[in-house]
Amino acid sequence: MNHTHADNERRELLEQIRAIEFMTIDLNLYLNTHPNDRRALNEYNYYTRQLQALRKEYEMRYGPLTNFGYSLSQYPWAWINEPWPWEEDHYMEGC
Questions:
Q1: Cα 37 to Cα 17, 44, 71, distances in angstroms
Q2: Helix, strand, or coil here: 60?
Q3: CA pair distance 90, 95, nearest whole angstrom
Q4: Which segments constitute the Protein CotJB domain (predicted)?
Q5: Which of 31, 55, 77, 85 is 20 to 30 Å from 3 by CA-CA measure?
Q6: How far is CA 44 from CA 6, 27, 56, 67, 89, in A?
Q7: pLDDT at 29
Q8: 48 burial class (0-12, 13-18, 19+ CB within 10 angstroms)?
Q9: DSSP letter at 86?
């Protein structure tokens, strides 16, 4: 395998990851306003599983990656529930 072929494989894998990341981000945003859309939630979880597998493959071959799509979600979409993760300390002070 020559160096150019290896670079192309890495680039192709990274392009697949970026495309699926875009889908998970897009579905994440949609689910924030449509938390009871089971079809969208199923798609989010499907693409998140694919993304996790591709990231694992990439990281084993080329090194670490970070971004959205690490966690699956149960029904209904719960990310929109308060308190937000960064508000938790403030929320606890008021109790």
A1: 25, 11, 18
A2: helix
A3: 9
A4: 12-87
A5: 55
A6: 30, 6, 18, 15, 29
A7: 97
A8: buried
A9: G
Give CA angle at 92 (91, 93), nearest 5°.
Answer: 90
- Burial, 31: exposed, middle or buried (Cβ in 10 Å; 0-12, 13-18, 19+)? buried
Cβ contacts of residue 25 below 8 Å, gap of 6+?
68, 69
Q: How many CA atoms lie within 13 A of 13 on its CB side?
A: 19
Between CA 85 and CA 91 the distance in angstroms is 10
